[in-house]
Amino acid sequence: MSRFWAEPVRLHLHAEACELVVGGKTHRLALAADAPPWPAALAEWLPVRAKVDVCVADHWLRYLVTRWPAAVRAPRERDAWLAHQFKTVHGIDMTAWTVAMDTGPVDDARIVCAAPTALITGLYSLLAARKARLVGLTGAFVAQFNRLRRQCAAADGALLCAAEGRLTLGVWRGGRWCALRSQVVAPGDENAARRMLTQLCASGEAASSGVLYTVGTRQNAPDGWQPVALA
Predict the structure, then answer these.
(1) Does domain 149-230 have CATH number 3.40.1090?
(2) Does residue 28 carry a pLDDT above 80?
(3) Is the pLDDT of residue 1 over 70?
(4) What burial class does residue 138 get, using C-beta atoms within 10 Å of its C-beta: 0-12 exposed, 13-18 middle, 19+ buried?
(5) CA spacing 20 to 30 A to 60: which of 34, 36, 119, 228?
(6) What is the C-alpha separation between 60 and 108, in angstroms, rounded?
(7) For residue 3, what pLDDT is reported?
């Protein structure tokens, strides 16, 4: 067995392509329109019994920041409450989506992520065909925050990530998550983040001032907010 098979293989699902990194070599496969998100050709490059670390672009995902109401305690009640929240905010039927949530919430504030169930089952089918094992499955925004969290030191702040024509904005106050928004933006629109953050300030979900950390984009910030570009 080659040495790199024992090391995690990285698989990134973008909006229009898959990238598989094996032993330092990147294989990129385009996604055909309306085709399943995991091309069958991936199996040719995925080593048998590989450990696979997967990152999924925000294009495929829907996010919420939630706090459980005091009266919602039982697992079935929480599932129903989350389904209602996703339906209200994103207009999606949760019978076709799979939910994952932050395992280490602060003050019971959690990032909750939903992915199409077909995407998850397709991934497991791909791995099973090669007897591979999933060791990590992360949304792109969460992966970026985990990578940059030490640089995002402001008590009141926001992280803005840009990729493939989409902005994802996560906001915290006093170090606690308050909101997470993701939307498609027009090319060259440098005020999209200002509009998103201004709305969150007006609703009280974001502080009136803070630091806006940005990755992959140049965006203007509302008055009171200081933009800081991160690499």
Answers:
(1) no
(2) yes
(3) no
(4) middle
(5) 228
(6) 26
(7) 44
